[in-house]
Fold this protein.
Amino acid sequence: MLGEYLISGGRASEIAASVEAGVGSGELTPGALLPPMRELAARLGVNPNTVAAAYRTLRERGVIETDGRRGSRIRARPASTPRGAMGVAVPAGARDLSTGNPDPALLPSLDGPLAAAARRYALAPTQYGQDPVVPELARLARAELTADGVPDGPLALTSGALDGIERVLAAHLKPGDAVAVEDPGWGNVLDLVPALGLRVLPVEVDDEGPRPAAVAAALAAGARALVVTSRAQNPTGAVVGAARAAALRTLLAAHPQVLVIDDDHGHGIVDLPLHSLGGVTRHWALVRSTAKAYGPDLRLAVLTGDPVTLDRVRGRQRLGPGWVSRVLQYAVLELWSSGAVDPAAVARAYGERRDALVAALAARGVPAYGRSGMNVWVPVAEETAVVTRLLAAGWAVAPGARFRLGSGPGIRITVSRLTPSDVPGLAEAIAAATGPASTTRYV
């Protein structure tokens, strides 16, 4: 179970610190099974509730994960070591295609919107007790959501998509509950779920998003929540189409107790329609970020969902940050009102780069995927070797381990800064780095 390591302590904080010390020293390895709470309590001469409190603290810190009756284990990677740290050191002169950032040339200037926001604030400074969402912003957001077929529901604002996802999960789930997530999928979500003390159930994806059979298996395994990326899926570029959405809605209708979260971070950079899964189950939410279309530093996302979910999120938010800065809201309102971003033009720019790279790779016998968004996913036989060879050739890409659990290895390429002249050389380097043509898929 724990080998030679002995957990010590007489208080919950001391027991938790003892486990963390073992993890930090390497004496407690990933996957190590912790003693049952009553057994450890008897050994330490403490009340079982004390051990339960220590385990709860460790789950909340992302040190351990609980799998029902199978017990608690040391996580494969503590929350203090996020997947984002699994990057590559980019040598001088290499092109960095690993970051997932949008093209700065496609982002609007913030000079005018921020100046307009400052003028509006000067006329009516924000005070405690005001509506947390600027009414004009709420009207514009609701109009766009309605146009996209998202069910009517109350609105809230969060500090980005991940903040919204975390708040919704925390509003409904308790440690040990299982969450179905895409695999491969957004690394931050793959880290967030276990950091909240929740269990991850990986769901295979293809070009149409989560595969119905994989979702059905996760639901049968007890998933209490499902997180789906509607468009511009990271890292594969998958898009949930009408037929796939219908199939998933049919599945979910038989599980009304499951929480469904739609991540629409691709809004504003895609030209494919949204097919939301909201409204099928009792509790649902859709989060729509401004980061990809307007800039990562605009930490604002629109959140909608069923009344109970939004009431819980807004109630907890009042006890923490209170609200998303109204100055920031004014700036986003100015951007939206002025039409500073043409989604069709931005989607076309990213699409041309993705399509060119995918086609160039196909011409060289290398399968690649990227239906939407700013990333291309290339399945490979061995990630480390491919990433290393590409670095030597002057290209930095993201290792697939940042985005996957049980799915096959791959690399993610962000096309934001690619030019047409870059594509042939990059495709040639990838073909050389991957070796003979691979038939590996990403599921």
User: Anything to note?
Assistant: The CA atoms of residues 352 and 420 lie 9 Å apart. The mean pLDDT is 92.
